[in-house]
């Protein structure tokens, strides 16, 4: 069995829980890692270390806000809860409308007529034997609302806490040659995870042999990175994260960050990311007219007649500039 090295051997120093408890600063704003967060990458076949991967600071180094995680857990658990069956009301119940008992000479309280005193004389009114419920249960959704920015931040806090508690193990890929469960179990034994509740997060297209081998293991579960939620992060003791899943998670949070800014901010970011003009590379023009102009310009430049062509062009009255709108 290969010994698994400490996950944080290459990590930067992190703030201990004792320091957080004794700190005089605002603990809601203290990031748990002091520098860039890095984790070793292991080969899934033999659990040997391959390289070191830097994690995104905006995703895996956020203040540990327990209150945000609690709110997201409540939101996730109650997202699909609903009351599907409603109780029968007075308008839905079926009963006779005649007078329940005579007005006098019975020794009992007077009962009205259904047509005149609707609530008093109805045979199945609330309060009578086998009567309907006064304020019964109605069909409704039990989900609670939570702002999108809080959901995104709580997911970042959950991922940061998983890295902080040394739950995350980076693997290169989950691909297998065949779907034998025995081979997958031997790979997990190399990581000392054969008897541990684990979650393996893969890319959008996981390996079919891997899924076939994993289907027979009770304590091992898998999901793609787009299906990852706060409950799947908190429940397992270890999380195996592939490089494709790590890249997808970081890109997904970047897209969410841009969408949170609104359309106007997205346009500004897209304009900032436009390619810069490089004079050493040839121009790539989209329109045919501009391509023809560029070809004529190159011909005049090679023949040495460019300066003569510019001198013969009509000039404007302001600052002797060349007027390209005439002739």
Description of the molecule:
It is a single chain. This protein is α/β, with parallel strands linked by helices. It is built from 12 helices and 8 strands. It has helices at residues 17-22, 57-60, 66-77, 118-121, 148-164, 181-190, 208-214, 230-234, 243-261, 263-272, 288-303, 306-312, and strands at residues 38-42, 49-54, 82-83, 140-141, 168-171, 198-202, 220-224, 238-242. α3 (66-77) crosses α5. The longest helix has 19 residues, at 243-261.
- Main-sheet strand order equals 2-1-5-8-6-7
Low-confidence stretches: 1-11
- Going by helix content, strand content and strand pairing, the class is alpha/beta
End-to-end distance, in Å? Answer: 84 Å
Set down the secondary structure blueprint.
Elements: H1 17-22, E1 38-42, E2 49-54, H2 57-60, H3 66-77, E3 82-83, H4 118-121, E4 140-141, H5 148-164, E5 168-171, H6 181-190, E6 198-202, H7 208-214, E7 220-224, H8 230-234, E8 238-242, H9 243-261, H10 263-272, H11 288-303, H12 306-312
Parallel strand pairs: 1-5, 5-8, 6-7, 6-8
Antiparallel strand pairs: 1-2, 3-4
Helix pairs in contact: 3-5, 6-7
Summarize the structure.
The chain is of the alpha/beta class and 327 residues long.
Keywords:
single chain, 327 residues, alpha/beta, six-stranded mixed sheet, 12 helices, 8 strands, 36% helix, disordered N terminus
